[in-house]
Amino acid sequence: MGDKTNKKNKKKSKDEEEMDFPRSWLVKSLAKTYKWQLLESAFFKLLQDLLGFVSPQLLKLMISFTQDMSIHTWMGYMYAILLMVVAFFQSVFLQQYFQRCFVIGMQVRTALTTAVYKKALVVSNDTRKQSTVGETVNLISADAQRFSDVTNFIHLLWSCPLQIILAIFFLWLELGPAVLAGLGVMLLMIPINALLATKSRGFQVENMKFKDKRLKLMNEILNGIKVIKLYAWESSFAAQIQGIREKELKVMHKFAYLSSVSLFIFSCAPALVSLATFAVFVSASNENNLDAEKAFTSISLFNILRFPLAMLPQLISALVQTTVSNKRLEKFLGGDELDSTTVRHDSNIGRFRGYPHNVPGSLVAVVGAVGSGKSSLISALLGEMHNLKGYINIQGSLAYVPQQAWIQNATLKDNILFGSQLEEKRYQMVLNACALRADLELLPAGIDGGQKQRVSLARATYSSADIYLLDDPLSAVDPHVGKHLFDKVVGPHGLLKNKTRVLVTHGVNFLPYVDEIVVLTDGKVSEVGSYQSLQNSGGAFSEFLNTYAKEESSKAELGISLLLPAFTFMVKFSVYMQYLRSVGWGYFISIFLAYFIQNVAFIGQNLWLSDWTNDSIKYFNTTYPPSVQDMRVGVFGGLGLAQGLLMFVGTLLMANGSISASRILHSRLLDNVLRVPMVFFDTTPSGRILNRFAKVCDIFTVDEAIPMSIRSWLLCFLGVIGTLFIICLATPLFVAVVIPLAVVYYFVQRFYLATSRQLRRLDSVSRSPIYSHFGETVTGLSVIRAYGHQERFLRHNEATINENLKSFYPWIVSNRWLAMRLEFLGNLVVFFAALFAVLSRESLESGMVGLSISYALNVTQTLNWLVRMNAELETNIVAVERVNEYTKIENEAPWITDTHPADSWPDSGKICFENFKLRYRPELDLVLRGITCDIGSMEKIGIVGRTGAGKSSLTNCLFRIIEAAEGCIFIDGVDIATLGLHDLRNRLTIIPQDPVLFSGTLRMNLDPFEKVSDEELWQVLELSHLKDFVTELHEGLYHEITEGGENLSVGQRQLLCLARALLRKSRILILDEATAAVDLETDDLIQSTIRKQFSHCTVLTIAHRLHTILDSSRVMVLDAGRIVEFDSPSALLQKQGHFCAMAKDAGISSVDSTAL
């Protein structure tokens, strides 16, 4: 019972949340903005619609001309020329209308993208947390695009009804009340179509949910790929993705079946409508003779009717989808903004209220345990927190260094200047002060966490603001670098000595030098005072002074983002073949046959009609025999039904085939991406990889766009062939014209395709920066706002959009260029069909004239569509090519080989390096230059060295994240190069630098393969000091963790990583700077657990905090990829070498020293 109430309450609160934003204003605003352009395009559309009804009347005159030999021949020529002129003007008006609509669509997309971007810069943190970065990027990639697409066809809302009314009016003139029968059939179709559309919409929404879920997980996998590889968890995550994908395909199946039914109804519709009308017309009275004039004028009018009737349901479903987008955009754009009154800049009030001691130019340290609210305090000073009461007053400009450095994908210089003017002297001074110069020379390839943090600090220092908010920037760097930064930048003699600095820190050794210390406990200020006074007070602060502080580092690329190379070659035929192979040849041949026979039935039906109209001459002035009439109606109806059924069968087969292709291509892509070596992920932006899986990119295209394109292309192609066949059958002279027309057509479309392909590629290449810049902005929002650089980022966003429009606008114009030329060709077909009918009027039956000209009138549209479909298919098939490209990337070594180690391996945990050399990529220098050493069983080894000395590379090579360039590593006598990667990685344990968690349950994060019992999990949680925390959680082990573990503190994430290590029970443990970003308390917990629980293991610890390794059996000192010292800590301290110098920097004089 309680559960039900809970659910109800949940639903209620969700509904309240849904109602919590202004509605129904976006469309009105857009309409108001673009009203004149909309009216102008409406005028052209109206002219084009009206002209469309002139052609059937001319066709009628043309038929009566061939029947009535008394009409002068020149009238026939005039009709033929008029047919062409009317068609020509129709083309001109239509293209003018399209040009305007597409430009409005483009403007709407741009306006929405900019509005969303502007909003993102001021959105409050609560609103921001409601959606992930990916979902926010979707607003501009999917939702704004949907608006743009609908704008192109918005006029059909009035144009379709207008065309339907006019067509019915002219049909009434031809056939009288019999039209009502046809109309009845059409009206019957509407509710059926509406029902199918609502059903389809339900499936689409469901499908989108699965797509979002799959993308979110994929994004996390790519961000945490290193951890997944280290733990050998690829297959578990692959299974999770495949599980979601199967559900997605299931929904696609249902959707495809629904589409087949609606297509069946749609393709039966014209046949049923004309059948009902003609049958009623002939049965109504014996006087009613179906002659060629009536039949073919009606057929032409029915053809005009087909378009609005086909478009209305599509338009309705597009509008329905747009309402979803509209709601999402209104929700985001109407969301809460930052409360600008929280932070005031009033010069009459003292500085930061609450700290009366704080004078301009002082250095205030903020300390406290994990979760005590240190980072929240900084966020509050920035105005980023939700304000309950009170306010903050700040005088002067701010600079902010966040705990997790935010680096833009740009050059190092751009990152430091951050939009300021370059002053070379100041820039060099900042580089030196932030200790960046030495590292730049050492590491051209990538930068680690410590360097990122220094770049972030350099950015702040260069900005020369008045107040500096520093959220623990010194924890992520080596001790000697930390000391250097404090001395040269932050401390009392640094570059910022005259500025106000608020420094959150875990580093106890800096505290004696600060002017004032603020101690936080549970979100409240518990003590404020100088170092000396607080130390003597014996309060919360004195508990801090017993341990030491930490370090963090993480590998990441920093470089200039490169545009994708532009491909100028045509899409290779082999790509099409590959897609068809994935569909299956059996399916493809059956699909082709179904559509081909359907087309034959269509031609048959029209030939039958043409023959039927000749009865009016045959039985002229005599009674029409009922048996003949029934046979005519029966065969005509039967052929119509056959078309519908064949269309249904073809579409069903297409659905099954394309879903099997989607399944195969996605599985291959996923399987290969997870087997690619780590170097690939280090050098490829994750956005580019994600695009292969994304909604608007490749897999989406394979799922939805390609099957549609192939179907439309086949139908268009068969339609054109059918039309030419009929015209040639009626007037064999036409064959002479077909060949030159075909040659012109071929050249026009080749020229267009080459241009269009390039423009589409440029469009997609220039679109990526819009999304990546937007994603980057959302991630670094607090930094951008702290520096007050919103305006600059807005301008940059506008510049990237303009860059994209430069290739999008020419694409619109190129479509109009093509359409004008193709429609002119179509108009020539009409002209020649009419001209040859005039020339051979003696020998031609009027039925054949009607048939050939009414077919010709239709060919213009079909020709245009064929090229469109050709271009679309070429554009879309590129997705298969791109997916394919990622299935061919060279894999890392096999996960499992024939050489299996013993089950108990490694039982003693001895490690032996023999002349081991390593480089990251073939073209780069060696990172490890001949490491040779033996590490005994159960030894505890500390590994130290400057940034870039090769410490992390040493752990990478144990897991074979990077393969050896030379030499080998033996673990318990087994050469690790002979093992499968999973065999190796499953037997070693690492607590990595970054505590990476994945969205899902807590249990999944500890044991993704579900091999371990709950009891064991509780045991390790107790050992890793998390049991109390997890017990308090409502769902316990099944507590949902958000993307990247955002709903846990950094300390808790690190303890979870410790729990993972405890679960694996292996004999070798590697700690890769594992206590980097945690406070002293957590660090202590981790260290003591490791000492107890891993006492029987060989432990390698990479540490920048020398205190953590003073109790090691031996310390290995690395420098530029070589071992320079390797001995016990006490021996090294006496030796006066590298280690001794580092110890001095950290204030250590002896092994049991606990200097502050």
UniProtKB/TrEMBL annotation:
<feature type="domain" description="ABC transporter">
    <location>
        <begin position="911"/>
        <end position="1145"/>
    </location>
</feature>
<dbReference type="InterPro" id="IPR050173">
    <property type="entry name" value="ABC_transporter_C-like"/>
</dbReference>
<dbReference type="Pfam" id="PF00005">
    <property type="entry name" value="ABC_tran"/>
</dbReference>
<feature type="transmembrane region" description="Helical">
    <location>
        <begin position="633"/>
        <end position="655"/>
    </location>
</feature>
<keyword id="KW-0445">Lipid transport</keyword>
<keyword id="KW-0812">Transmembrane</keyword>
<dbReference type="InterPro" id="IPR036640">
    <property type="entry name" value="ABC1_TM_sf"/>
</dbReference>
<dbReference type="GO" id="GO:0005524">
    <property type="term" value="F:ATP binding"/>
</dbReference>
<dbReference type="InterPro" id="IPR027417">
    <property type="entry name" value="P-loop_NTPase"/>
</dbReference>
<keyword id="KW-1133">Transmembrane helix</keyword>
<comment type="similarity">
    <text>Belongs to the ABC transporter superfamily. ABCC family. Conjugate transporter (TC 3.A.1.208) subfamily.</text>
</comment>
<keyword id="KW-0547">Nucleotide-binding</keyword>
<dbReference type="GO" id="GO:0016324">
    <property type="term" value="C:apical plasma membrane"/>
</dbReference>
<dbReference type="InterPro" id="IPR017871">
    <property type="entry name" value="ABC_transporter-like_CS"/>
</dbReference>
<dbReference type="GO" id="GO:0006869">
    <property type="term" value="P:lipid transport"/>
</dbReference>
<dbReference type="InterPro" id="IPR003439">
    <property type="entry name" value="ABC_transporter-like_ATP-bd"/>
</dbReference>
<keyword id="KW-1278">Translocase</keyword>
<keyword id="KW-0067">ATP-binding</keyword>
<feature type="transmembrane region" description="Helical">
    <location>
        <begin position="824"/>
        <end position="841"/>
    </location>
</feature>
<feature type="transmembrane region" description="Helical">
    <location>
        <begin position="255"/>
        <end position="284"/>
    </location>
</feature>
<keyword id="KW-1003">Cell membrane</keyword>
<feature type="transmembrane region" description="Helical">
    <location>
        <begin position="74"/>
        <end position="94"/>
    </location>
</feature>
<feature type="transmembrane region" description="Helical">
    <location>
        <begin position="304"/>
        <end position="324"/>
    </location>
</feature>
<feature type="transmembrane region" description="Helical">
    <location>
        <begin position="179"/>
        <end position="198"/>
    </location>
</feature>
<feature type="domain" description="ABC transmembrane type-1">
    <location>
        <begin position="41"/>
        <end position="321"/>
    </location>
</feature>
<dbReference type="GO" id="GO:0008559">
    <property type="term" value="F:ABC-type xenobiotic transporter activity"/>
</dbReference>
<keyword id="KW-0813">Transport</keyword>
<keyword id="KW-0677">Repeat</keyword>
<protein>
    <recommendedName>
        <fullName>Multidrug resistance-associated protein 1-like</fullName>
    </recommendedName>
</protein>
<feature type="transmembrane region" description="Helical">
    <location>
        <begin position="558"/>
        <end position="579"/>
    </location>
</feature>
<feature type="transmembrane region" description="Helical">
    <location>
        <begin position="717"/>
        <end position="748"/>
    </location>
</feature>
<dbReference type="GO" id="GO:0016887">
    <property type="term" value="F:ATP hydrolysis activity"/>
</dbReference>
<feature type="transmembrane region" description="Helical">
    <location>
        <begin position="585"/>
        <end position="609"/>
    </location>
</feature>
<dbReference type="InterPro" id="IPR011527">
    <property type="entry name" value="ABC1_TM_dom"/>
</dbReference>
<keyword id="KW-0472">Membrane</keyword>
<feature type="domain" description="ABC transmembrane type-1">
    <location>
        <begin position="591"/>
        <end position="875"/>
    </location>
</feature>
<dbReference type="InterPro" id="IPR003593">
    <property type="entry name" value="AAA+_ATPase"/>
</dbReference>
<feature type="transmembrane region" description="Helical">
    <location>
        <begin position="153"/>
        <end position="173"/>
    </location>
</feature>
<dbReference type="Pfam" id="PF00664">
    <property type="entry name" value="ABC_membrane"/>
</dbReference>
<feature type="domain" description="ABC transporter">
    <location>
        <begin position="336"/>
        <end position="547"/>
    </location>
</feature>
